Predict the 3D structure of the following.
Amino acid sequence: MAYRHIPVMLNEVIHYLNCRPGKTYTDCTLGGSGHARAICERIMPDGLFIGIDQDIDAITNAQKTLQPYSSNIHLFHGNFINLPQFLAQIKIDAVDGILLDLGLSLHQLENSGRGFSFNKDEPVDMRMDNRSATRAGDLVNNLAEQALRKIFKDFGEERWAKQIARSIVKNRRQKKIQTSRQLAQIVRSAIPRRAPREQHIHPATRVFMALRIAVNKELEVLDRFMAGVSDWLNPKGRLCVLSFHSLEDRIVKQHIKTMEKGCICPPKLPECACGKKSVMRSLTKKVLRPTQKEITANPMSRSTRLRAAEKI
């Protein structure tokens, strides 16, 4: 089955990564390899491309999609937090560009069979890496009500977190929650009928997002990665991040700001005592969003946020 995915903000990504022939670039989240193919087209024949994804389906697809560049690419099945180890395996210390696309692919929503979509009747799994031990079903069927409520509130910013958690616990006492459609129905029924609803957003959207984040430890991994990302870039190397909700974007924004500022001493201190220097400069003073033309052509892109920075 073909791996379906439309790369978002492709032109903007290529622009901010500053892809040049003969340079080395890393796509830490291959997905459907749309961004990866565009990068390879611009850095070959002498460039080097490193692709990473924790979804084995993405790796399998990349092997086919990027086959014309096979002699100049390295693909790794794993989490992007392990980028330093992957670089060490091919005896590279740093690269000229790093891309993070933190969104789900159409393939994962439509064909993965792992319950990412509330429109499917699939096992409640939601693991990006099927080697991981914890599934979303383990959380909804075993966590205490208060723990579920915290996940929905902290990771999904769900205003009805309390009611939804209570409803899940009540329903699982009668019957184990096994499918994404079953879970979506429970969530929908827990929200008051007269409650105001956001346009174009399914009532279960935030709960599914929160569970996916919890299962894959997405925010924790992103925070750790951003804390060290400057170490893996060459001077003038570029970082480009595509995030899809405020929690991700906030982490990216704060880390870029910290790397740009350098000194963390209190303002009243007469001179710097921490010794920290600015290591990055922001290339996007304000977050960039997709054009209306792109949103019309690909509605999934509407929540995309792009931030980019360059190593000094």
